[in-house]
Amino acid sequence: MIETTMQHGDLLISGLVEYSRKVFPEAKIVTWTENGARDTSFADIGNQGAQIANALAKLGIGVGDRVATFMWNNAEHQALYAGVPSMGAVLHTLNLRLSPEQAIFIINHADDKVIFVDASVAPLLSPYLQGTPNLQHVVVVNGPVEALTAPDHITVHAYADLIAGEPTTYDWPALDENAAAVMCYTSGTTGDPKGVVYSHRSIYLHSLLVTSTTGMGLSNRDSMLAIVPMFHVMSWGLPYAAMFAGSTVVMPDRFLQPEPLLAMMAATKPTLAAAVPTIWAGVSAMLDANPQDITHLREVIVGGAAVPPSMITKFDGYGVPIVHAWGMTETSPLGTIARPPAGIEGDDAFPYRVTQGRFPAPVAARIIGDNGEELPWDGIAQGELEVAGPWITGSYFQPDGNVTDPAKFNNGWLRTGDVATVTPNGFMTIVDRAKDMIKTGGEWISSVELENVIASNPTIVEATVIGVPDAKWDERPFVLAVVRSEDDADVDAQRAYLEGLVPRWQIPERWSFVTEVPKTSVGKFDKKRVRQHYAEGDYQILGQPQE
Ligand code: AMP
Fold first, then answer.
1. For ligand 1, is residue 447 a contact (CB within 6 Å)?
2. Which of 18, 71, 305, 470 is the residue whose CA sits 20 to 30 A from 133?
3. Residue 191: its pLDDT value, please?
4. Is pLDDT above 70 for 266?
5. Is any ligand 1 atom within 6 A of the Cβ of residue 522?
6. Segments of 86-243 assigned E as strands
7. How far away, in angstroms, is 17 Cα from ligand 1 center?
C-alpha cells in the first residue's frame, strides 16, 4: 500500500472569491441599465461580498442558513454569489417567474431567513410575504425600499445602508468542501418543484469544466454575455467559472428582449454568450430585420431545450457558431457539450453539432431500456438517459432529510426523464422528454424532431408539438405555431413543406396559429400549458383529422 503525497486542499467558493479579487482586478461585471453599461471590478465584487457576509452575520445568519435572492443578473447578485456561500450560508436563487403558489411553497420549504430583492421586482415579491412566516429580513437592492410592501414580522433594509461601513474583508470559515453552498429548485413542470443543493466542491469542479476547452472554454480573454438567468441553475455556472478564469461577464439585468440584447452586444462586444433557444430565435428575427455585425461572438452556447438545426445554420450565416449543450438543474447543469471530433470540419461537422454532444469525463452516463436493461451505444437504441458524477445530484432536498425517490433515482444514478441515443464515440442525442413522445398507431414520434423540421420552414417563427387524443390512432401530433405573416397561417402549405422531410404518417393534421407559444419560467415551450389549453378547447384548430 502506498499513500499519496499530495495535499488535500478543500475546494471552496471563498478561495475563488479571494483569488479573483486579487489576481483579476481588470475583470469586471458589466451590468446593463436604462443608461447603458455599469462596470464593477472583481476587486469590488470581493469587497461587497465580504460586506454582505459581515452584515448578514450581524443579522444572525450563520453556517447552513438559507439566504435567498429574487434578482436579475447584475453585479449585486454576483456579490451575493460570492459572499453568501463563502461565509457558510446557503444561497437560494428564487426564480422570478414562478407562480405565487410555487414561490411561497419554495421560500417556506427552503426555510429562507433573508431575501435580497431587486427593487424592479419587489412589487412581485410583496404579496408572497404574507405567506412566509419564518422569513425575517428582506433587503431591497438597486432601488428604493418603498418598492416593497412587507408585513410586520419582516424587517426591510436598503442594500446600500445594510452594507455601508462594513469591513471589506471577512474571516471566511474553513468549511468542508462538501458543505452546501447554493440551492435551486427545478422549474416544476411536473408536480411540486424539487430542491437541489450544490456543494462548494461540485461548483468548483463544474467551474473547471466551464473554463476547460472541453466545456465552454471560458478564459480571462473572454467577455461572456450571460443571458441565462442567475436564478436558473446558477446561470449555467458562469458566475463562479468567471471568478475561476477572470472573465468579464456582461449581465443584462431585466433587459432581456432582443432589442436591448442587441444594443448590449453592440456596446460591449462580448466574445461568448449563453441562453436558451427561444432567446436566440427572438434575436435572430430582429437581426434579420435590422442587420448588425455580431461576429465579435466567437461562439454562442445554447441549451436548456433542443436547438433546432435550422437555428445552427442561421447563426452560421451570421458568422457565429452555435455550440449545443445539454443539462438540467440536477446536473449543475453541464451534462454534455457538442464539440465535433478532431479533423472533422465544415459540413461534415454539422451532424455532430446538432447532437447534444459528449459527456465530460466526470459525468458517467448510460441509457436504460423499458425492462431496466442497459442499452448499447450504437446511435440507434433509444432509452432513458441516466447520469452520475460529482456535480450530479444524488437526492432532492427535504427539511427532514433528503430523499432519493425511486422515480427519479436508480441505484445512485439520476433518471433524467429524457429519452436518448448515444453513438459509439459518445455523442448523445435527446430524442424527447419521455412524457412528450407521441404514440400514434403503435409508432413513436419524437415531438422534438417534428418541431425541428417544422421550425426549419422560414415562414415559422416558433412552433411546438404535443400529442393529442385521436379516435383512430390513439394519439396524433398537434402543432401550435407562430407564423411570420397571416398568409403563412395555411395548413395545406405548412403540410406540403413537410412532405419528404418527415415520414408521411408523421405529418400533423391539426394546427393552430397564435401570437405566442406559452413558455415556462425559464423560457422553454410550456407543453403542460399547451396541453391544458388544448383540452379546454382554447385553440382554434385548423385542418382535418384523418378518417
Ligand atoms: P431544467 O432543469 O429546467 O434545466 O430542465 C432540464 C431539461 O431540459 C432536461 O431534462 C431536458 O429535457 C431539457 N434540455 C436541456 N437541454 C437540452 C438540450 N440541449 N436539448 C434537449 N433538451 C434539453
1. no
2. 71
3. 65
4. yes
5. yes
6. 90-93, 112-118, 137-141, 155-158, 180-185, 195-199, 223-226
7. 30
Pairing assessment for the beta strands 155-158 and 137-141 based on DSSP bridges:
parallel
Query: Into how many domains does the chain fold?
Result: 1
User: What is the Cα–Cα distance from 108 to 93, expressed in whole angstroms?
Assistant: 14
The answer as to whether 459 is a domain residue is: yes
Q: Which residue's CA is minimally distant from atom 4 of ligand 1?
A: 328
- Does the pLDDT of residue 546 top 90, yes or no? no
Q: In the predicted model, is pLDDT for residue 400 greater than 90?
A: yes
Between the CA of 264 and the centroid of ligand 1 the distance, in Å, is 27
Known catalytic residue at 330: yes
**C-beta atoms surrounding 351 within 10 Å:** 14
Expressed in angstroms, the distance from the first to the final Cα of the chain is 74
Q: CA-CA distance, 108 to 309, in Å (whole number)?
A: 41
pLDDT for the residue numbered 344: 97
168 lies in a domain? Answer: no
For residue 92, the model assigns a pLDDT of: 98
Distance CA 29, CA 270 (A): 12
Confidence of residue 190 (pLDDT cuts 50, 70, 90): low
> Cα–Cα distance between 326 and 422 in angstroms, integer?
13
Contact criterion met (CB below 8 Å) for 341 and 348: no
- Domain of 529, CATH number, reads 3.30.300.30
Does residue 93 fall inside a structural domain?
no
Report if residue 455 sits inside a domain: yes
Instruction: Determine whether the shortest distance from the Cβ of 187 to ligand 1 is under 6 A.
Output: yes
* Cell representation of residue 259: 432589442
Q: Pairing mode, if any, of strands 90-93 and 112-118?
A: unpaired
pLDDT tier for residue 147 given thresholds of 50, 70 and 90: very high
Cβ atoms of 452 and 306 within 8 Å: the answer is: yes
Q: What is the pLDDT of residue 454?
A: 96
Cell numbers representing residue 90 in the block: 446557503
Interhelix angle for 13-23 vs 42-58, to 10°?
A: 140
At which residue does the C-alpha cell 442561421 appear? 314
Task: Quote the domain boundaries for residue 513.
Answer: 437-535
Radius of gyration of the chain (CA): 24
Pocket test for ligand 1, best of 234, 326, 384 (most atoms within 8 A of CB): 326
Distance between CA atoms of residues 117 and 316, nearest Å: 39
Q: Is the CB of 331 under 6 A from ligand 1?
A: no
Task: Determine the Cα–Cα distance for residues 15 and 412; give it in Å rounded to an integer.
Answer: 30
